[in-house]
C-alpha cells in the first residue's frame, strides 16, 4: 500500500537528503531557511492529494496553514506572557498586544491554549473541522472547478481581513510575535533550531508516507476516477461529495501541521502567510514539482522558495511577476511538473543504464534431444 520499490527508494533518498546531507553541508542560518521551506512542503503534499488526484484546486490553503500556525503561536505567546514576564503591563498575564488595545482579560477562546496537548490537537483539528464544513457545504451543492477555487480564494481574503481587523485578539497585521519558549525550553538557541529542524523533517516524511498510503489505496483510485469522470463515479453509487470532502480535510490537516512547524521554526505567525498571495504560491510549489508526485511537490517547495530567497534579494519588485509567469508556464508547457519531466526523460535513461550493467543470467543445460 506504500507504493512500489522505486517509490520507497525515492522517499528514502529524500529523507537522507534533508536529514543527513543538508545538515552536514549547510550552516545553521541556511539550514533554518531550509526548515522553513520544508514547512511549505506539507501544504504541497496535501495539494497533490487534493488537486493532483482528486481534481479539487484550492487557492486558499494558506487559511489552513495559518490556522495551524496561529494555534501553536497562541500557546507559545501565553507561555511568554506569564504575570512575572508582563509585570510592567497595566494588565499582567495577557499578551502584550492585548494590553496595548486596552483589553483587561484574556478572551475565552484563548484559555484552552494554556495546555500543550490541546494545542497539538487544535493544530490538526481546527483546520480539518473548518475544511469539513466548507467542503461539505460546497461539494454537496456540486460546486467545483474554477468556482471552488474562487471561493477558497475569497475565504483566504476574508480571514486575512478578519485577523488584521481584530488586532486586540489576534495581534493584527503584525501577527503574534516574540515567541521564546516551549514548556520552558528556549526555541531560539542553536541546539533548539537543530532539533526543530529534525522534528520538522521527520514529520514531513511521516506525512509523505501517509499520503502515499492514501494514494495507493482504494481511496486514491476513487479520487483519480473522480478527477477524470466524476459523473460516471456518481452514477455507480459512490458519494462523490464525501470523498472530495475527505481529501480536502486531509490536505487541510497537513497544512495545519506545516503551519505549526513554521511558527516553531521562525518564531512568529502573521496574516501575511494566510492570504491570497501565499495561497497561490503554495499551488505553484505543487505545480512546479509535479501535482501527481508527492516527492515532486516537496522538491518543488524547496526549489521555488530557494529561488524566491535568492532572486527576491536582487529583484524584489519583479519576483511576484516571475512567480505568476512560472505558474502559467508550468501549467501550459509541462503540466506534470519537474516530476513528469524526470519520469519522461531521466528515468528511462537510468533504467537503460542499469539494464546494461546487470549481468546476463548464465544459460542452463541444454535440453536432451528426443529419444536420448
Could you explain how this protein is built, in words?
The chain has one domain (5-312, 320-350). The protein is an all-alpha fold and 372 residues long. A two-stranded antiparallel sheet has the order 1-2. The chain is globular. The chain starts with a helix and ends in a 15-residue tail after the last helix. The chain has 15 helices and 2 strands.
Main traits of this protein?
single chain; 372 residues; mainly alpha; 2 strands
Stretches where pLDDT is under 50 for at least 5 consecutive residues are: none
End-to-end distance: 51 Å
Secondary structure: number of strands? 2
Order of helices and strands: HHHHHHHEEHHHHHHHH
Strand content is: under 5%
Describe the biggest sheet? 2 strands, antiparallel
Helix content: over 70%
Q: Taking all residues together, what is the mean pLDDT? A: 88
Whole-number total of structural domains = 1
Structural classification: mainly alpha
**What is the radius of gyration computed over CA atoms, rounded to a whole number of angstroms?**
24 Å
- Note the overall shape: globular
- Largest sheet strand order: 1-2
Amino acid at each position: 500500500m506504500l507504493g512500489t520499490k522505486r517509490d520507497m527508494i525515492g522517499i528514502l533518498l529524500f529523507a537522507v537528503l534533508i536529514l543527513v546531507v543538508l545538515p552536514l553541508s549547510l550552516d545553521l542560518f541556511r539550514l533554518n531557511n531550509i526548515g522553513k521551506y520544508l514547512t511549505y512542503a506539507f501544504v504541497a503534499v496535501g495539494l497533490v492529494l487534493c488537486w493532483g488526484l482528486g481534481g479539487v484546486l484550492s487557492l486558499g490553503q494558506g487559511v489552513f496553514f495559518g490556522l495551524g500556525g496561529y494555534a501553536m503561536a497562541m500557546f507559545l505567546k501565553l507561555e511568554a506572557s506569564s504575570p512575572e514576564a508582563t509585570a510592567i503591563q497595566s494588565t499582567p498575564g495577557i499578551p502584550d498586544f492585548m494590553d496595548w488595545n486596552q483589553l483587561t482579560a484574556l478572551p475565552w477562546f484563548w484559555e484552552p491554549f494554556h495546555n500543550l496537548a490541546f494545542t497539538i490537537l487544535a493544530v490538526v483539528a481546527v483546520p480539518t473541522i473548518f475544511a469539513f464544513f466548507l467542503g461539505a457545504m460546497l461539494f454537496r451543492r456540486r460546486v467545483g472547478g474554477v468556482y471552488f477555487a474562487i471561493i477558497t480564494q475569497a475565504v483566504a481574503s476574508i480571514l486575512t481581513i478578519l485577523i488584521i481587523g481584530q488586532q486586540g485578539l489576534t495581534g493584527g497585521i503584525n501577527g503574534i510575535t516574540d515567541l521564546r519558549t516551549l514548556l520552558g525550553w528556549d526555541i531560539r538557541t542553536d541546539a533548539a533550531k537543530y532539533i526543530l529542524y529534525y522534528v520538522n523533517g521527520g514529520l514531513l516524511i511521516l506525512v509523505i508516507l501517509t499520503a502515499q498510503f492514501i494514494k495507493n489505496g482504494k481511496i486514491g483510485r476513487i479520487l483519480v476516477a473522480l478527477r477524470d469522470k466524476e459523473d460516471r463515479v456518481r452514477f455507480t453509487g459512490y458519494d462523490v461529495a464525501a470523498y472530495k470532502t475527505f481529501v480536502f480535510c486531509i490536505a487541510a490537516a497537513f497544512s495545519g501541521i506545516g503551519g505549526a512547524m513554521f511558527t516553531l521554526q521562525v518564531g512568529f505567525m502573521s496574516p501575511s502567510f494566510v492570504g491570497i498571495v501565499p495561497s497561490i504560491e503554495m499551488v505553484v510549489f505543487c505545480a512546479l514539482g509535479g501535482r501527481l508526485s508527492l516527492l515532486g511537490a516537496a522538491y518543488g517547495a524547496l526549489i521555488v522558495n530557494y529561488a524566491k530567497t535568492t532572486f527576491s534579494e536582487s529583484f524584489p519588485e519583479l519576483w511576484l511577476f516571475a512567480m505568476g509567469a512560472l505558474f502559467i508556464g508550468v501549467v501550459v508547457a509541462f503540466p506534470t511538473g519537474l516530476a513528469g519531466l524526470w519520469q519522461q526523460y531521466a528515468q528511462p535513461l537510468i533504467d537503460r543504464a542499469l539494464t546494461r550493467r546487470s549481468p546476463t543470467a548464465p544459460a542452463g543445460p541444454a535440453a536432451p534431444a528426443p529419444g536420448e
